[in-house]
Amino acid sequence: MSNNDIFEMDSVTETEEMEGDNELGMIDEEVVYPEEFLPTYESIKEGTTVAKAELTEFNDKEDSLFFNDGVRRIDFILVYEDEDKKEFEKRHTFQRKKRRREYFEASLMKMGMELEATKSVIDEKLTFVKVHMPWDVLCTYAEVLHIKLPIQPNDLSSRPSPWRYLSCITKYFYPNEDLIRKEAEFFTAPFEKDRLDFFHVRDRDAFFTESMRSRMAYYILSRAPYEIRGSIKKFGITKLLDGGVYKAAYPLHDCRFNVKSKEEGCPNERFLLYQEWAHPKSFYKMQPLDLIRKYYGEKIGIYFAWLGFYTIMLALAAVVGLGCFIYGYKTQETSTWSKEVCDPEIGGKIVMCPQCDRECKYWRLNSTCEASKKLCIFDNFGTLVFAVFMSIWVTLFLEFWKRYQAELEYEWDTVAFLEQEEPPRPEYEAKCLYERKNPVTGVKEKVPYTACGRCVRVSIGIGTVLFWILLIVASIVAITVYRLAAFFAFSARLRAQDLKELEPLKEYVTPQMATSVTASLISFVVIMILNILYERVAIWITDFELPRTKTDYENSLTLKMFLFQFVNYYSSCFYIAFAKGKAVGYPGDPVYLLGKYRNEECDPGGCLIELTTQLSIIMGGKAIWNNIQEVLLPWVKNVIFRYCTRVASEKVIPRWEQDYQLQPVSKLGLFYEYLEMVIQFGFVTLFVASFPLAPVLALVNNLFEIRVDAWKITTQFRRVVPEKAQDIGAWQPILQGVAILAVATNAMIIAFTSDMIPRLVYYWSFSVYPYGKSSGHTMEGYINSSLSVFNTDDFSNFSMPIGKVPNMTTCRYRDFRFPPGHDRQYEYTMQYWHVIAAKMAFIIVVEHIVYLTKFILSYVIPDVPYAVKEQIKREKYLTQVILHETNLKLVSKRLKPVIDDALKVTDTSMAMDDLELGF
C-alpha cells in the first residue's frame, strides 16, 4: 500500500469523522489564528515540511526546569507516543494523528511559543515536548487575560493581630517562617504592555510567577489550531488528548516532594508544601494559604481556605454537640419515661398490639428498654438547645466566611475578576456557527445555537434531571417496601417464643432496629450506585447544553449534581423523619401501602433513633468510601505504574518524566471535593436535632480530609493547571439555601419526629399519677398516657394475630384515641389536638425567632471588613493616577509632532511678516 493510498483512506475517514463526531470545528472571526503562516490541510497531505520542535538529548539534569540551554524555562509539557513504532496496518490512523500534532506544534511556534523535544529515558516510544513562552508572548497574554501585577508596594499599615500577645504559643501552630517567608504586599493593576514602565519589574524572570506562566500557556494550548480545512478550524489541546494525539499535557512540579532540588534558584515550593502542609507530622499546623495559592492557583487556594475555615468553625459546634451528647448519656438512667418503660411493674405489664398482620405477636413494652435508653441520649431538652444553637452557628459561619473571603479576594487580586470578560470555553467557540446581535455592544457575534435551539437543549437537560430524580424516588419507594417486608419477617422471627437461641439478643435487637440497620445499608449501596451512574449523565447533559464560559459550565454542573445528590442522600432521612409512623391508623383499621403492605410504625419513643442510625451509617460509609476513592486508588495506581516502568538504578529520570508517572488530574478538578463537603454540611445542619454528634464526626473527618487532600495533590497527582477564582462559586448560594432549610427541618424534627412536644404537653397540661391522684407538674405516668387501648376482639380477620395470650382482652398502641366502649371509641382525644396545636406553635415560634436572629446577624456583620475597603479604594486611586499620567504622556507624545509643525508654521509666518514690514 502506497502513502497516497493511505492518505486517500484517511481523507474519507476524516470526512466522515467531521460530519458525525463531536470534533472542535468552527468558523471563527473573533479568535485570530496564524493560518496565513501555516500550511493547509491539503498541503500537509502532499508532504509539505512544517516547523517542528527541535529534538535534543536529555542532559542528565534530573531536577532541571529548563530547556537544554539552561536559560528558557519550561512552562508546559506535552507527551506523545511515536507512531512509527506501531504496526503498519494501523499506520493510516497514526499518520492522521502525526499530521495533526505537527500542525498543532507549528501553530504554537507561529504564535510565539518555543518548543524542544526529548525522548523518554524509560520508554523509547514516548517523546516529551517542552513548551516555553518568551517575554513578549507572556506580556501579550498577560494583557489578554487581565492578569493583575504589582505597581507599587502597599503603603497602608496593617492592623496588628489580636493574637500577637500569645505569639510565643501560637507560633508553633503556624508553618515555619524561616522556610515559608511572608511575601511583600503590593498594590496591583491589570497588566498592559504599553504601560510596562509603571509596573514594579525587578526581575523579568520572576515577574510572572510559575502559576501565571502555566495558566497563559494552557490558554494558548486550548486555542491553537491543529487542523484547518477550508473554513472549518479545529483547535485545542483538549480534543487532541481525547483523540490520543497526545497522551498527556501538564505543567511541571518544581521538584520532588520529599527531596530538595539541586538546581540553583529553584524555589522548592512543592517540597515546602509537603513538609509544612501535607506531611502527617504537620496536621496541627495552620495552612500556608499564600504558598498554596502561589503554587496551585487561586481556585485551589480558595478551596483549602474554605475547608480550613469550615473545620475551625466546626470545632465550636462539635464542642456544644459533644456536651449535648454527654448530657443525654448521663441522664438516660434518670429519665422518668425511660424508667417507666423498663420498670417490670409498668412497662413489663403493658402488652403492646402487634405491629404487622397475622404473623406478628403481642409483645411487652419493657422489651424496648435498651432502645428507649439509647433514645434518651439523643431525644432530650439539650437537643432542642443544640438545634437552635446550630441555626445561629450556620449564620455566623456563612457571614464570617464572607468577610474572610473578601480579605482573600483582595490579597489574591481577584476582587474584579468576575467583572472582567471571561474568555469563552474552546468547546463553545468550536460550535459557533450562527450570528446574533449583541444586545450590549450592538456588534454581531458568533453563537453556537439559536434561541429555539437553546430552549431545546435546556428542556432536554431539565427533563433528564427530573427523570433521574424520579428514579431516586422510585428507589426510595422500593426501599420502603423492603422495610415493610423486612419488619414483617424480623417481627415474626425475633418475637417467636420457640427460638431460645435469640433470647439473649431480644433485649438489644428489636424488629425496628434490625429493619433500620439493614435498610440503611441497602440505601447506602443504592446511593453509591446511582451516584456513579448519574455523574456521567450530568456531565453529558452539561456538555450538551454548551455553556459559554468555564464558570457557567461549572455552575450548571454544580446545580445538577447537587439537586441529584440532595435527593439521593437526604430522601431516606426525610422519609424517616417526616413520613414514617405518621399515617398508620390503629390496630383495627391500619393504613396499607400499595394496598398490600401495612405501613410502618415507630417505637413507643418515636422514630428519632432510626433517623440517628440512618445518618451515622450514611455519614460514616460515605467518608470511608470517599477516602478509598481519593487516596487508596491513586496510590495503588502510581505504585503499579512505577513497578511496570521501573528502570535500572543508574539511569537519571528527568523532572518531566517523573511527573508523567503521577496520576492525571480530573477534568472537573475540585468539583467532587466541594460536593463531598457540601453534602456533609447538609448532614451537619439539616438533621442535627436528631444526631448531636454529627459535627464531631464531621470535624474528625475534615481534620483528615485537609491533610489527605493536601498529601494527594502534592504527592500523587501531576501539577494542576492554575485557575483564577474569586470565591467558591455556585456553592455559596447552595450553602445559604441549606442554612435556611436547616431551620425548618430541625424545628419539624423536634416537633414531629422527637417525642419532646408530647412530653411537654403532658407535663404542663395532663400530668397525673396512674391512679388519679393529682400531682402538679410531673412526668410520671407519661407512658401510660401516650398509649391508647384497643380491644383484641376488634381485629379484622386479615390482621388478627395467629397466637392469642390467654385472659387478655386488650392491648396498647402509640396514639391518643378514646378506648373501646367510649361513645367516640378510637377517635382522637383532646390531648391529641393539644399536641398538634403545640407542635404547630413550636414550629412557627422557633422559625420566626431563629430567622429574625439570622437576619439581624446578617445585617450587623458586614460582608467586607472596613480595612479591606480602604485598601481597595487606595488601589483603585493609584491605578487611576497611573493610567491618567500614562494617558497624558501618550497624548503628549502623539500631539508633539503636530505642535512642532504648528510652531514651525507660526515662526515662518512671523518671519514673512517681518520681511514685508521691512525689518
Q: Could you give a short description of this structure?
A:
The protein has 919 residues and is of the alpha+beta class. It is built from 27 helices and 19 strands.
Would you give an account of this structure?
The protein is an alpha+beta fold. Among the domains are: 3-147 and 208-252, no CATH class; 286-453 and 610-757 and 847-860, no CATH class. It has a 5-stranded mixed β-sheet. Strands 5-6 form a two-stranded antiparallel sheet. The protein is elongated and about 125 Å long. Residues 1-37, 41-47, 495-508 and 769-775 have low confidence and may be disordered.
Give the number of helices: 27
Mean pLDDT: 78
Query: How is the main sheet built?
Result: 5 strands, mixed
Q: What's the number of extended β-strand segments? A: 19
- The geometry reads as elongated
- Range of strand content: 5-15%
Rg to the nearest angstrom? 36 Å
Structural class estimated from helices and strands: alpha+beta
Unreliable stretches covering 5 or more consecutive residues: 1-37, 41-47, 495-508, 769-775
Helical fraction equals: 40-55%
**What is the distance, rounded to the nearest whole angstrom, between the alpha carbons of the first and last residues?**
96 Å
- Describe the strand arrangement of the main beta sheet, using strand numbers: 1-3-4-2-9
GO biological process, one term: calcium activated phosphatidylcholine scrambling
Protein name: Anoctamin
Subcellular location: Cell membrane; Membrane
Family: Belongs to the anoctamin family.
